[in-house]
Amino acid sequence: PAAPVPVASPTLIPIKPEAAKPSPPPATTGPPPVVPKKPPAIPSKPPAAPDTPSKPRGKEIELHWPTDKSPFEKPDDPSNIVYEQKDDDFSKARIKAASIEKLIEKATSYSADATLQKTLLLTYRSMVTPEEMLDLLMQRFSMPLPEGNEASVEAFKAKKQKPIQVRVCQLIKSWITKYYSDFENNPELLNKLADFCTNVIKPVCPPGATLESIIQRQMDGEYEKNKEIQFTDPPPEPILPKVPRPSFLDIHPMEIARQLTIIESDVFRAIKPQECLGLAWSKKQAQEKSPNILKMINRFNVVSNWVVSEILKQDTQKQRVDTLNHFIEIAERCKGLNNFNACMEIISGLGDSSIHRLKNHWAELPKKTQNIYNELKVILSSEQSYKNFRAYLKTCNGACIPYLGMYLTDLTFIEDGNQDKLGGLHNFSKRNFVSNVIQEIQQYQQAPYILKTVPPIQNFFNSLEDKVIDKEQCYQISLQILPRGGAKAAASPAPTPKKEGDDYGEMQEVPGYPFNVADSNKNIRLQKNPNDPNGAPKVENFP
To answer: Fewer CB within 10 Å: C terminus or N terminus of the chain?
Structure first.
């Protein structure tokens, strides 16, 4: 039988069910529903404008200052700067000597420190005039740019020119805010600086507007008004004499100390940094270059001489002892007020030979007063460069008038012991020493005294020159009070008995020995001291 033919099974194709139609919403009688509006379509980004041809910026390359067009940014070498490094100081090397251009460059560089700027502003007058200083700062701000493609020049401006210009602005700001005295009596210099800030700095550098404002405020006197003393606490009430026409002894020691302090504080706080440069107070133009230091020196001499005169004017020994005691009490009160300059004036007067030799008067002082006087002498001693006084000064708080003579001595040693220039460069180490002294003086000029003026007493102390006796005359009066050989002989120590073997006999004369020649005009000249005719003559000059 024939084989059955296989029948293919039918292929089943799934049928997709018809989607159910949504039922219509139920009819309503109210208003039709509100259909929310679609948000407005955000317009597509407009097509980019066709490329416009521009000047090629070029590849950025490192540029350098053109040193042939400016006195700044020349490579450091011994011809323009010298550094020093101390063995015990591991910080960065300090400038020992440099040209003024290099000093300004370092003070306005990106890595400049505040100490360098402060020292430069305090001492620049010993190197250049204020006019020259301003010209150099103007040149530093407006240094010519190097040549190069646009990208390189723009990068150079951002990385090197702008930081330097900002530093120059900072230096000028410190100059006109902290050392405005350089401009007060120099309107041409002030106008030149104001014009430079307005027309050159302001258009290209934001600090220019600040500088312009500061200069205007200085010209209007706003900064000076801010310096006026405003007391938060009332000053102590003056201790007035109880008699209508008081004598010197009727005025309380504390009130005398207060009035002396008011007078001297005004002069001390008026001292400007430039007065301390180059020993200006001892030069021919001292009155012009160092007026306030000169006032302090003259004041010191007048008060010291007045102390001597006031004691010797008294008729009796009791009155002289009372006056001596009164002055020591005043000196103690000055010490309590931290007025060490007035304290030293009084101690100096009491140490004058006309007063010091009156041993019988000193012996009558109370033991307490003698101890106070001895303590003051120890504190104000000049031994070891005023070691005791410097230590005591560090313990003082509040307003203070230090003994100015100590700082003038420091400045004299610095000036005499250090050359002004080293190999043609300005000795900046010397300027650092001077700057440290000036800054210490400035430290004590900040805090004012809270004291009330008593006009009658002030008038008395402002006219002391009329009450001073000539020093030679003072010594003659002292001799009349206590002739030579009186207390001096009694106070002399007993001679020390000789020990066996101490007598060496007469010196042997050796022919040709150079130190055995008799005095003559050929080998020595002696000169009398006009202020001390009874003293021993001093050597004028000798070969």
So the answer is: N
Q: Name which of 257, 308, 340 is nearest 473 in CA terms.
A: 308
| Residue 155 in tokens | 């990068």
CA of residue 500 relative to chain centroid, distance? 61
Say which range, 311-325, 337-351, 418-432, 502-516, has the weakest mean pLDDT: 502-516
Average pLDDT, the chain: 83
Cβ proximity of 537 and 528 under 8 Å? yes
Q: Point out the least confidently predicted range of 36-40, 330-334, 517-521.
A: 36-40
**pTM as predicted:** 0.76
Instruction: Please list, residue by residue across 115-146, b when 16 or more beta carbons sit within 10 angstroms of its beta carbon and e when fewer do.
Output: ebbbbbbbbbbbbbebeebbebbbbbbebeeb
Tokens of 462: 């402002």
pLDDT band per the 50, 70, 90 thresholds, residue 353: very high
Using an 8 Å Cβ cutoff, are 534 and 475 in contact? yes
For residue range 154-169, what is the model confidence (pLDDT) as tens digits?
888 888 889 999 999 9
Provide the 3-class DSSP secondary structure of residue 277: helix
Would you call 422 helix, strand, or coil by DSSP?
strand
Q: Rounded mean pLDDT of 130-146?
A: 93
Other CB atoms within 10 Å distance of the CB of residue 421: 11
What's the angle, vertex CA 538, arms to CA 534 and CA 543, rounded to 5? 160
* Rounded-to-integer distance, Cα 434 and Cα 416, Å: 12
Query: For the sheet containing 421-422, what is the strand order?
Result: 81-84, 94-98, 425-427, 421-422
Question: H or E element: which one contains 388?
Answer: helix 383-393
Long-range (24+ apart) CB contacts under 8 A made by 497-504 are none
Q: Is 458 exposed, middle or buried (CB count within 10 Å of its CB: 0-12, 13-18, 19+)?
A: middle
Q: Distance between terminal CA atoms of the chain?
A: 168
- What is the C-alpha to C-alpha distance for residues 389 and 380, in angstroms, rounded to an integer? 5
Continuous segment of H or E residues that includes residue 118? helix 114-123
CA dihedral 67, 72, 73, 78 (to 10 degrees): 100
Average pLDDT over residues 530-536: 54
Give CA–CA dist 107/134, Å, rounded.
Answer: 14
